[in-house]
Amino acid sequence: MRPSRDLHRHIGQLMIAGFDGQSVPIELAALAGEFDLAGVILFARNIDRPEQVADLAREVQSLASDLPLWVSVDQEGGRVARLRAPFTEWPPMATLGRSGDEQLTRRFARALAAELDAVGITLDYAPVLDVHSNLRNPVIGDRALSDDPHTVAKLGRIIIETLQENGIAACGKHFPGHGDTSVDSHHELPIVEHPPERLRDVELVPFRAAVEAGVASIMTAHVLIPSLDDQAPATLSRRVVGDVLRGELGYNGLILSDDLDMRAIADRFAAPEAAVRAIAAGCDTVLVCGAAYQTQAQVLERLIHALERDELPPRRVEDAMSRQRHAKERFLSGHTPARTSRDLRAVVGRAEHQAVADALAAFL
User: Which of 106, 208, 271, 320 has its CA 20 to 30 A from that of 220?
Assistant: First the structure.
């Protein structure tokens, strides 16, 4: 069956793109106009003052044709935080785990949501749901809430529920668990050698809680888990994404890949081929976080060709687009950033939020 032209026209709903600069580049606008992008991801290179971020968010939304775009960011706290002062600077999330304080966790997530919402950011790649079970882990470390899976599950669930009650789509990461690795997937492919029983008892516990909490999205990890799939990293594995996350955990929300530019994937597959494999495996949207617009265009063109050649069944793409639409209807209806500098400054970095950061810092 030949895929409909509608799928071709909206193929960009399968990609969230990075870019350079503090305003929308013409190349990004062209991609959005031709392919109907799912959204953008912001990094430090895109961020200056709160007013500039709010203007950028409005500019991104002006690219929308059918659905609004996600304006997304990694704002965890500690070393992974794209928004710096005058935004509130949060200590690493290990401080929450050490506190064990559910009320403090709610206060943190409420304050974080308020600052993101004020500048028009709608999707936060948080919380980290990895269990920090390897002290030599170079990439997770104090980004994790705890080395105890039940603590991660309890506090992660509170963060998810509070962010989403306050209008921000949460993203649990990195499925099925990046906590017990000794290499960084930004640079090489980590291998997790645990059997399925151990994964169920430790790594999957927080993700099961996130599914029960109705988390808007879950991000896959670029890790190889031979007991589940000895050939494909989790992001590219039907067994991990389809059988475990969709099947065993019963997750019906949006599944996002981690950045396809990371070397754990990029050393093995060019981004266009990786994108096809990730969508075929069950991911609904891929992240291509660099600013190489030619590569991003090639990703989308390759997805169209995969549809035409039946490498990607139209039903798989329709399912991904349906999940994207549902998530956007849930979180992006009528969402606009604060209109004036005064409104922004009344929220960003306010004393109440700093008091929460100070309370967290007591557990450094």
Answer: 106
Task: Exactly one of 36, 74, 130, 258 is catalytic; name it.
Answer: 258
Nearest to 74 by CA among 146, 16, 147: 16
Domain encompassing residue 76:
5-361
Provide the number of structural domains found in the chain: 1
The mean pLDDT of 323-330, rounded to a whole number, is: 97
Selected catalytic residue, list 186, 326, 335, 343? 186
Judge whether 258 counts as a catalytic residue.
yes
Q: Give the separation between CA 32 and CA 156, rounded to whole angstroms.
A: 33
Q: Residue 294's CB: how many other CB atoms inside 10 A?
A: 8
- Sorting pLDDT into bands at 50, 70 and 90, what band is 334? confident
Is 343 marked active-site? no
Strands 80-81 and 75-77 turn out to be antiparallel
DSSP 84-127: -TTS--PPPTHHHHHHT-HHHHHHHHHHHHHHHHHTT--EE---
Amino acid, single-letter form, for residue 80: V
Is 108 within 8 Å of 356 (Cβ atoms)? yes
Is residue 4 very low, low, confident or very high in pLDDT (cuts 50, 70, 90)?
low
The CATH number covering residue 287 comes to 3.20.20.300
CB 3 within 8 A of CB 317: yes
pLDDT at 97: 98
H helices of 282-332, in order, are 293-308, 314-331
Task: Confirm if 145 and 101 have CB atoms less than 8 A apart.
Answer: no
pTM over 0.90: yes
3-state secondary structure of 169: strand
Question: pLDDT > 70: what percent of the chain?
Answer: 98
The H-or-E segment that residue 171 falls in is strand 169-175
Other Cβ atoms less than 10 A from the Cβ of 351: the count is 7
Alpha carbons 224 and 222: distance in angstroms, whole number = 7
Mean pLDDT of 173-190: 92
Reported residue count of the chain is 364
**Residue 138 pLDDT:** 86
**Given this model, what pLDDT does residue 1 score?**
40
